[in-house]
Fold:
Amino acid sequence: MPGKAAKNIDIMKTLLAEIISIGDELLIGQVVNTNATWMSQALNRIGVTVTQVTTVQDDRQQIWNAVSAAMAKVDLVLTTGGLGPTKDDITKGVLCDYFHTRLVEDIRVRAHVHALYKNRPEVLNNLTATQWLVPSSALILENRVGSAPIMVFDKGKHVLISMPGVPHEMQTVMTEEVMPYIRERFDISAQVIHKTVVVYGIPESTLALQIEKWEKNLPKTMHLAYLPKQGIVRLRLSSYGEATEEQIQEQVNALLPLIEGHVLATDDLTVEQLMAIYLNSHYQTIATAESCTGGRLAAMLNELSGSSAFYKGSVVAYANEAKMNVLGVKEQTLKEFGAVSEQTVRQMAEGVRKLLHTDVAIATSGIAGPTGGTPDKPVGTVWIAWATPEGTTTECFHFGGDREQVTARACTAALAKFLIAYA
Structure:
């Protein structure tokens, strides 16, 4: 057993993979390549290191060149796309030529395709029939949710697995067939551990200096990654089969006092997920009143499954008339202090809380840009208010970036600052 464990740890450190995404639609921006991100995350969880993601056209020579380069460099090559029944789907033919094999009929795939389309006989035509033609030298894995077969070319030191590009098909076959195959084929059994601490309110460089001594003293069996986004830094502490969960937790426990007052969570959760957990656990409801964020904060909360339990609604009051007529902001307040002010945002939060009868209300008003800024209130100025049964608090922020970044950071701040204060 000790010998086997050592073998697994070595494999965990050295198993390298490359992802090849095939499709013209990816290169012209018609479709976003979410497959590569999802696959990289799935592979990382079992300790496989993705060294490169390559995107190529539906072109024979480009596919050939990409496969040839990848097979020379890594242990595992994963391709997606180009496996449909139409003439522009050429991946299967190129792989047949590359691996010096030929297409043969697979009776299991044929039976599966017929069963898949039993209620749609019009789909069973000459083009669909090409789906049950597979490379004779390939291992065929089941695609329960689609017609394209999953082809595995095992060349001893190198393995290539070809999958469809439709995201829900790829994710299903990766989960049900491909990941178990990879684990068994490469003898992956060591435990991969990731522990994430979510931090808000400390710039990445400042945070690095603040925890520098702790980071330097980490055991060599652990690796720390900084993952910043919109004011949040996720600190991910990882071990690939060489440390226990208890050892990882010991290091996290030593880290937390160094960043006290800035920790949102010790799990890899988004701010909206954390907000939902807080509200549900306290049996509270929330509403939002938004000006500069234009409903983005509401959308973040509404996207969560089960949000009807805590989220009552939102008022997007962009114009001053809407602020006055719907939220009850006083005309004199707007004239004296302006829409982007502590006084206005306070009345917005209190107004929507009263209007929708919630425990918590959050309001935003600011200048997202690129126009509208003044010397006193430059672009990026955002006032946020939080109204609760204990009273209303406000804070002014100055966010950098373009309109998209300002509104995104404002929404993150609106939830993160509440959680740090109340959770």
DSSP finds 16 helices and 17 strands in the chain.
